Every structure is written in C-alpha cells, then in structure tokens.
Amino acid sequence: AQKVTQAQTEISVVEKEDVTLDCVYETRDTTYYLFWYKQPPSGELVFLIRRNSFDEQNEISGRYSWNFQKSTSSFNFTITASQVVDSAVYFCALGGGYQKVTFGIGTKLQVIP
Amino acid sequence: EADIYQTPRYLVIGTGKKITLECSQTMGHDKMYWYQQDPGMELHLIHYSYGVNSTEKGDLSSESTVSRIRTEHFPLTLESARPSHTSQYLCARIGRRTDTQYFGPGTRLTVL
Fold first, then answer.
1. Cβ-defined contact of A95 to B99 (cutoff 8 Å)
2. Do B48 and A100 touch (CB under 8 A)?
3. Tens of pLDDT along B61-85?
4. Contact B52, B71 (CB under 8 A)
5. Which of A44, A89, A105 sits opposite B103 (nearest CB)?
6. SS3 for A97?
C-alpha cells in the first residue's frame, strides 16, 4: 500500500520568508513518481513538478526548489522569498503502478503581507 | 496547459435531482479520473477509466456513476442528489507520454 504524509497541516509565514513543506512517502514499488500540486483558493489543482524514483537530483525553478532524498523517503518543497500569491494548499502525491496516485492531506500555506 | 474541461463550474440544486457533471478533453488521452474533495481537504479517487467502455471504481465508495462511451468525454452522474454529495468534484487526465495527472478546474456542487 502507498502512503503520503504531510505532517504540516497549516503554515503561516511573513512575506519574503523562506518556507519548506515536508512530504514523506511509503511504497513497495521500486519505480514510482512523486508530484507536487498547488491548489489556490479558486480550487483548481495546478501541477508543479514530477520526479521519478531514479532521479534524485534536486531541482530549482525560480523561487521553488525540491529536495528528493530516497534514503529518508522524503520529497520536500521549499519556497524562497515567499509572496502573498504563494498562499494556497500544497499537495504531495505518489504514483505507482497503473498510474493510480495517492495524495497527501495537503499543507495550507498562508503568506502574510 | 491542462486541456481538460469541466462544466458546470458551480451547481446548486435541490435534494432528489438527477445531475450530470461533464468532463471533456480534446487530445485523445486514454486515462481519466474523477476525484471528490471537500474544501481544503484531501482528494479521494472515486472513478477512473483507461479508455472507451472501461470504467472502474476508485478507493472511496461513491453513489455516483460514470460512463466512457467516447474518448473525449467522461461524465459523472448522480441519480438522486443528497446534501451529503455537497463537495468539489475534480476531473483529471494523463497524457500518452507522461505519468502526470492534469486537472480540470473542478465543479463545486451544493445540494440543498
């Protein structure tokens, strides 16, 4: 069985602070994918990144960066110099065989001006 | 671009009504999914399809039904809506050369 744990249910930061969202996963699959999605107040889920289990390189995209560590089964997401527009619920997800995806419960991020 | 569409975006109806939520895509993707989500809460997979005439129930039991008569459309139907069906319903698809799910804008359903 697959499991995704996002231990932080809500985080508040002041604008321009850095913030890291934690994600820990469990799977017996040897090949799998990890994802992060953003859900702003409007409700749609926006895809941010996909990482496959063979690629442990960290990735940076503008103010966003992701740290994948297979040894600790973690796929953490850092926002540098946070902005009010970053306020949203962020979901970590794990995909295994047949592309069924298991989502975490989400972390609600509030960036205060 | 997600190129997946859902209508209506918002729906308020009375108890007992039959409703159909539309989900469509124009790129011929085979794999499509329906999720149910209460505001700000986790997503629950309720139905999925791997192609025409293929539908399966997801992890969360749902009173809704789906059909996949054409590749482009994956509608979800509630024969008799109840207040417990009030939720957001999100449709997603996976492209041919990727394992990433892309989501439509969602339908927010309120049953009075």
1. yes
2. yes
3. 889 999 999 999 999 999 999 999 9
4. yes
5. A44
6. helix
| Calpha distance B39→B12 (Å, rounded) | 16
Residues contacting residue B22 through CB under 8 Å, at least 6 positions apart: B5, B6, B7, B8, B73, B75
Tell me the chain A residues in contact with residue B41 when contact means C-beta distances shorter than 8 Å. 105-106
User: Is the separation of the CB atoms in A17 and A87 below 8 Å?
Assistant: no
Between CA A24 and CA B68, with CA B94 as vertex, the angle to 5 degrees is 125
Name the interface residues of A facing B (CB cutoff 8 Å): 33, 35, 37, 42-47, 50, 89, 91, 95, 99-101, 103-106, 108
The predicted pLDDT at position B71 comes to 94
pLDDT for B96? 67
Q: What pLDDT, in 10s, does the model give residues B26-75?
A: 888 889 999 999 987 889 999 999 999 999 998 888 899 999 999 999 99
Contacts of A47 in chain B (CB under 8 A): 2, 100-103
Size of interface A-B (CB pairs under 8 A): 51
- CA–CA separation, B49 and A34 (whole Å): 21
Q: Which helix (H) or strand (E) holds B107?
A: strand B107-111
Task: Confirm if B73 and B58 have CB atoms less than 8 A apart.
Answer: no
